[in-house]
Write a structure and sequence with these properties.
Blueprint: E1 5-10, H1 13-24, E2 35-38, E3 48-51, H2 53-57, H3 66-72, E4 77-80, H4 83-98, E5 104-108, E6 111-115, H5 125-140, E7 144-149, H6 152-159, E8 167-170, H7 175-179, H8 192-200, H9 206-211, H10 214-221, H11 223-233, E9 250-261, H12 264-284, E10 288-298, E11 303-314, H13 317-331, E12 338-349, H14 362-385
Parallel strand pairs: 2-4, 7-8
Antiparallel strand pairs: 1-6, 1-7, 2-3, 5-6, 9-12, 10-11, 10-12
Helix pairs in contact: 4-5, 10-11, 12-13
The protein binds a DNA duplex (18 and 18 nucleotides) through α3, α8, β9, β11 and β12.
DNA sequence: TCTGGGGTCCTAGGACCC
DNA sequence: TCTGGGGTCCTAGGACCC
């Protein structure tokens, strides 16, 4: 059965959402001027999280350093992000999308797919998509793009056409006209590295990719990826709209220093902080982890990482931190400047570890009490913020 | 201009087992 | 004495997404 899928994408999400809040507070609409959402504007290392359309027209891009954006436009308006508010805006637009179909997959905080096959029977999909987009705008005050297609890939590609506040279709029979002329980089899953590899081989457009024979493509990008790229470049994608929310497979946290650090005390403090955050998150979600990983990033952005398997899954901060400290000692000489440090856990389970040892670590009770106090303190801090 | 933070998936090589 | 092939797990590294 041929399907009808919508992809709904909030235009410059974080910027639009911040603007909605500011307008409600009687402040000027930052969507109308060059503006960006960023981290701490005083931090030389903060980057652009979202840019307004006037800012984008000046060449300011997401993920660009704020210092660079300021050079492009000295009068650029900088605003801080507000995660709690973003979550509320996200819930608002998702719940409006749900009115149209229960077959909804949230793809990120500001994007979702809905399967509209049933709802569109005897109805014009574009009219319905337009109605959905207008409903979001009038009820919530921000705009979205809706991409309409016969699968998720085409719907997502379509929502990326002209912005903002637009509905676009990309049916299979429109692929040669609407999708093939685009550069390979515009195809989902083709990032910087893959683009470099493809263009070096003379593959510039999605059409070039669609018509490339599999043998060459496999040599360029590997078997599995080649298959996917070939299907997608031809507009084919049979992946379903996944309505189940998948459980997390890993948790991680990282810190970038305002300048590169060389003092082991500074590195250890950061490692301690990220260990507390990650361990708190897995306890909150009732997970235990069997693998601990950590990494350091150097001046030149090269990364050294290390991971280790635990004999038993754990959610104890001290155990996770001590593994990370041990691994840090194995990859760092204690002198080379470090730009960033990160810690992650994976191989997650909800099962409680069976205590095999007859001689329980006497420190363990202390560690657990420490974690209990930490979690309580976090909970109090969150309550205070509400 | 000098590059955040949080995820998922894939690949390749080595260890180990049958 | 020297050899094979397949499967699985682990680790390091790298690509992509928002």
């Amino acid at each position: 059965m041929s399907r009808i899928i919508f992809h709904i994408d909030v235009n410059s999400a974080f910027l639009s959402w911040t603007a909605v809040k500011m307008v409600m507070e009687g402040k000027p609409d930052i969507r109308l001027v060059p503006s960006v959402v960023s981290g701490d504007p005083n931090d030389r290392r903060s980057i652009v999280t979202a840019a307004s359309i006037p800012a984008k027209k000046l060449g300011i891009k997401t993920a660009q350093p704020v210092s660079m954006a300021l050079r492009t436009c000295p009068s650029l308006v900088l605003v801080r992000g507000d995660w709690e508010w973003y979550k509320r805006c996200s819930e608002g637009f998702i719940s409006i999308c749900r009115r149209y179909s229960p077959l909804l997959q949230q793809f990120s905080i500001d994007e979702c797919f809905i399967d509209m096959t049933l709802r569109c029977q005897g109805q014009d999909p574009v009219a319905l998509a337009t109605q959905l987009k207008d409903e979001i705008k009038s009820e919530l005050g921000f705009t979205v793009n809706v991409g309409v297609g016969s699968n998720k890939l085409l719907a997502k590609m379509a929502s990326d056409f002209e912005k903002p506040d637009k509905v676009h279709t990309l049916w299979e029979n429109e692929v040669p006209q609407k999708m093939w002329p685009l550069g390979v980089r515009d195809l989902l899953w083709v990032g910087k590295k893959t683009e470099e590899r493809l263009t070096a081989y003379g593959i510039h457009t999605i059409e070039d990719l669609a018509k490339l024979e599999m043998g060459s493509l496999t040599r360029l990008v590997g078997h599995k990826f080649a298959q996917q790229l070939h299907e997608n470049a031809n507009g084919r994608d049979d992946s379903p709209v996944e309505t189940e929310v998948a459980e997390a497979k890993s948790y991680s946290a990282e810190r970038t220093f305002s300048r590169d650090y060389t003092d082991p005390k500074d590195i250890d403090r950061a490692l301690f902080n990220v260990a507390c955050i990650v361990a708190h998150r897995i306890r909150r979600d009732d997970f235990r982890a069997s693998t601990v990983s950590m990494f350091i990033k150097h001046k030149d952005f090269s990364v050294q990482q290390k991971q280790t398997s635990l004999s038993q899954p754990t959610d104890v901060t001290a155990i996770i931190l001590n593994e990370a400290r041990r691994m840090l000692g194995e990859i760092w000489d204690g002198q080379t400047p470090i730009r960033q440090v990160g810690l992650g856990v994976s191989k997650l389970t909800h099962e409680n570890a069976v205590q095999m040892s007859l001689f329980e670590d006497p420190k363990l009770e202390y560690y657990r009490e420490w974690d209990r106090q930490y979690d309580e303190q976090r909970a109090r801090a969150e309550d205070a913020r509400q």
